[in-house]
Write a structure and sequence with these properties.
The protein is an all-alpha fold and 443 residues long. It has 14 helices and no strands. It is rod-shaped, with a radius of gyration of 55 Å. The C terminus is likely disordered.
Length: 443
């Protein structure tokens, strides 16, 4: 009796919530259609009328499809009892869910997080441009690291020239001779190289300041409020100008010039003719100039190797800003918008939970109704017929039986049996006369 009561309650409750189930399913399908419309509108190009009607038609088709699909699943899955057929329906439901996600959920996510995803795209691109600007600036300034070596070589040649002029530290004879001229020449070349390096510093600083101004403008566009599409257009214009600044920074590096100048120190070395008044002085001057030649060659090799290490650094690759739609941005940066994706998918797949609930409830009703299944379907006529059969069976069991029953005589053929007397149903004349006489007598 308890099982019958529980099954009846479950059946009544299921019937009561059917209206609510259809209403909830319709609301979910409508919500999915609205967000699908917003997502589709960001993807379409053309006139405003075309975009409006195309988005409306697509979103309406999505809403109808979602409502019809889950209506079928809510109707059929709970009623199927065979495990094989139920697995088949679950496979169909999984395929349908994937199709719903493909045609609706990602557009819902684009509507929910499209603007945030576009801002994320701008922020990531801005970070990349800032890194490129810093790298180009560092490469342009890397030649400045050669200044200490160049200054040291220039000072050394100048000091040797002064010592030779005043004291004759190299040749033993003071005065301005060919050795002093050579040392002064090498010092002058080093000073010219230093000047070219320091002059490039001002150009690099000006370009870096211009690039920093573009970075600041792009950062303001990323953090500003309002519609993101106009800001994205301005961001693209700033990105183009910043790319030009980065390219100019890479071209202002003086490392190639330093390398060429360093090679010229050794290859273009021209020693003056010894001008000593005696053969001994001339010999000493030639020895000193050979020493200076070796020193210049060593200095040239060191500067050339330092310039090669600077030139070996990788160039900053050219970066291009690629505008994205809101849907494309959501797909590219999906890991940053997991809550939005979860909400968009839940709107479309929440009826899956409702299907499971109804399936469990119908299974419970069937288990509790199996025991009384025949009793619940019997009619009153069947009940009366069963009672009559039961009474006849009891009467036969209670009737007395003779120990040796005689064999019954075979019935005679129908034509040999005597005819039964037939009684005339008409009134006899006697009775009729008596009745009539009594009538006269009374008269």
């Amino acid at each position: 009796m308890m099982s019958r009561t529980n099954a009846a309650q479950l059946r009544a409750t299921t019937a009561n919530i059917q209206t609510m189930t259809r209403f909830a399913l319709a609301v979910l399908a409508l919500a999915s259609g609205v967000y699908t419309y917003l997502g589709v509108r960001s993807l379409l190009d053309g006139s405003a009328t075309f975009v409006f009607f195309a988005a409306i038609i697509y979103s309406a088709a999505v809403s109808v499809g979602i409502y019809a699909f889950w209506s079928y699943m809510l109707r059929f899955v709970p009623l199927v009892r065979s495990m094989a057929k139920r697995v088949s329906l679950f496979v169909i439901m999984a395929i349908g869910s994937l199709m719903i996600v493909a045609m609706s959920s990602w557009l819902n996510a684009a509507a929910l997080a499209g603007s945030a995803a576009l801002e994320q795209h701008l922020a990531v691109t801005l970070e990349g441009y800032a890194q490129d600007l810093d790298a180009a600036h560092a490469n342009a300034l890397s030649a400045q690291s050669l200044l200490p070596d160049v200054d040291r070589a220039s000072d050394r040649f100048a000091r040797l020239a002064e010592n030779e002029r005043s004291e004759g530290a190299l040749t033993g004879s003071s005065g301005s001779g060919s050795v002093v001229q050579l040392l002064t020449q090498m010092s002058a070349q080093m000073r010219e190289l230093r000047t070219s390096i320091t002059d490039s510093r001002e150009t690099v600083a000006a370009l870096f300041e211009e690039g920093s101004a573009h970075i600041a403008a792009m950062r303001e566009l990323v953090s500003a409020t309002g519609s993101v599409q106009p800001r994205a257009d301005q961001f693209s214009a700033e990105a183009v100008q910043l790319s030009g600044v980065i390219a100019a920074l890479q071209e202002t590096s003086v490392a190639p010039s330093v390398k060429r100048a360093a090679e010229d120190l050794s290859l273009g070395f021209i020693a003056p003719v010894a001008d000593g008044r005696s053969a001994d002085l001339v010999s000493r001057q030639d020895q000193v100039m050979e020493t200076v030649r070796a020193s210049v060659a060593a200095q040239s090799t060191a500067l050339s190797q330092a310039a090669d290490s600077i030139l070996a650094e990788p160039r900053v690759p050219t970066r291009r800003f690629v505008p994205l739609s809101s849907a494309e941005a959501v797909l590219r940066y999906y890991t940053d918008f997991i809550p939005s994706w979860a909400g968009a998918i839940s709107i479309d797949l929440l009826p899956f939970v409702m299907v499971l609930v109804l399936m469990v409830v119908h299974d419970a009703m069937r288990r509790e109704s199996d025991v009384l299944e025949d009793a619940e379907t019997i009619t009153a006529a069947d009940m009366l017929r069963a009672v009559a059969i039961y009474r006849e069976m009891n009467a036969e069991e209670q009737a007395p039986r003779s120990p040796d029953p005689e064999p019954e005589a075979e019935p005679k053929p129908e034509e040999e049996q005597p005819a039964e007397p037939q009684h005339d149903a008409t009134v006899t004349p006697l009775k009729a006369s008596s009745r009539s006489g009594g009538g006269d007598k009374s008269a």
